[in-house]
């Protein structure tokens, strides 16, 4: 007997609604849920393989605890005892900062990852926090923090209504979109063209997305900030600046005009390898379009001028009046976001409130660069204690961060490490305790993060499609127990963590004159919360306090968990709407167009105008059937074109004597790797491309399928020293490398 159950797909940012077929407790099929209010039936090959991802036999079923040097199966009780015994002495002897926390990407795809790590970090009181954000989108947070006063206020291109999309360093036909949650991104690009709109793609590779475009500009990697600065220059130079409705909300226009004066199309053309006339055309087209959106992603962030490029993306949206208007780039409003306060000056955004111990990198958004994790463990200084214990949740930095070999050794030297991870992989193999979460079919799902980045306001929640297997523990409970064990409350009831958060949140809300529950009794409100579990009660609380919430009765038709459960395919909350000036939290209460940290970084960009590398540079790429480092163990998703090969342009290949399919050696500052060449003109001359997340050939892992075709770790080519200085983001693209054919034996 089979049945079906709904489950939001957690495998990428598109958040498609799936209809799972379930036999017994096994997921045997997945198709798109046509009634899903957001995804309307869209699915990609990863979602269609949900059952294989979910049922991977290599997923760990019980905790592992290291005994006599070896990881062995253990009970949950033994595992949490070991966590408390491993972490507490380190905190007590060396202080809170000697415990590091590493949070990986899947935390934004689980409810547990949204709800518990903030409590863990606050409870530990550690400043040693590292996340996947600093190998990804930290530059965007910093630019939003500086422009809008809120690092979380990220404008999203209005894909369904725009007339002109300028897409920079993003390949949504493979990635399905990022910092822009849209199910069926490919379909939305085709619809844009079908309604007469235009798509321009800036990417050193002729990607599947670039092939769809009306115009593809194969920029020199890393030079986007120069190109965008020159477009900004042209807008001023040709009097194309038109703020429209934004005028009263923006300051610093004249100063900005002055700051970009030197960045003429002629001055940047050589560094970008884009003709001056074409740069002018790009600026004019942007200004002339009835509506337009500029959108940048990985290729604009993980580069030396990541924050400047991210800032210029929104500068262009602002100067053309496209920020915060339909068809432009708007701020979504998620159902679990805070109830909007009246507009007015805020606290502003601060950078560099503290620094990393070894290389003195400034913090950004409370985080230190993931690139600096290894040195924070393996290097002693007079400044304080190195990291001696590590909590890794859904993170595989040995493959995803620069210089995995150094990190490998550093992790081995720790006094204690715990990984919350379903796999024994390149990183978790170093742990003393591995706590495996259940597969996604056994977990509830709500997109706290991505609903705040979605092209349409909507809200959905799916309960576990399959009950927890005997011996399993929900990831929410794992993280609650881990938090208690790490903060000196080992053995307490995990519900205490949820009660603490509920008490604090409601306590604050009743004291806030703008809250719908101002002046009420927090205990009485807590008693009204519904839900079967602590996390459900917290979701109920956030929905009811949120911008569409019922305000615990104050707005009777508003949202609550009960209302959401009654709408299994989700609730549509309408298209994105203009929201300014409310989201602004700058000290001025306005958009601060030319913030001081940007002014201070512009001289570096001016120098960049005069520099150009003549050697080969490396960029990354993603494949539709892959996801970072953890999906190479699923046979249905590997093979074919999803391989770890070095893309190289035919002319470069010929010059270097590299033959298609033959091994080539790639050398960078951090090391060298050998991979098969794939000669293709989809990369521009002077650029080679390797995908990331490969290199599954280390001993002591349990990834049987992945180990059979391990690929190489592209991040071994990096030594971790190249960062975007404002955000601490790793430079992963536009990295100089040497490439040589491997002589036949
Ligand atoms: N060269 C290069 N490097 C890159 C990038 C690039 O473009 N080029 N991209 C960067 C980007 S954007 C990112 S986000 C990072 C990602 O870097 P990471 O976050 O370190 O890596 P992931 O492969 O996403 O997965 C992390 C871990 O989560 C585990 N996991 C999977 N599902 C769950 C779950 O439900 N719960 C828990 N607890 N664990 C789970 C996996 O087994 C894996 O060990 O990589 C970065 N690295
Ligand atoms: N299938 C699949 N989907 C994914 C993931 C995955 O691994 N696989 N990962 C998920 C994650 S964690 C993220 S963050 C997103 C990322 O989502 P995207 O940013 O859309 O993904 P990428 O494919 O890395 O696209 C980056 C593009 O930037 C280009 N590029 C490199 N350097 C430069 C440069 O200097 N300038 C310009 N203009 N372009 C450059 C690359 O050639 C590449 O095509 O994808 C998510 N979705
Ligand atoms: S596009 Fe992303 S969310 Fe949708 S089915 Fe594919 S992996 Fe899942
Ligand atoms: Mo990412």
From TrEMBL:
Organism: Streptomyces humidus
CDD domains: MopB_CT_1 (cd02782)
GO annotation, cellular component aspect: membrane
Protein name: Dehydrogenase
Keywords attached to this entry: 4Fe-4S, Iron, Iron-sulfur, Metal-binding, Oxidoreductase
The 4Fe-4S Mo/W bis-MGD-type domain, residue ranges: 2-58
UniProt GO molecular function: 4 iron, 4 sulfur cluster binding; metal ion binding; molybdopterin cofactor binding; oxidoreductase activity
InterPro entries attached to this UniProt entry: MoPterin_dinucl-bd_dom, Mopterin_OxRdtase, Mopterin_OxRdtase_4Fe-4S_dom, Prok_molybdopt-oxidoreductase
Pfam families reported for this sequence: Molybdop_Fe4S4, Molybdopterin, Molydop_binding
The keyword Phosphoprotein appears for this protein: no
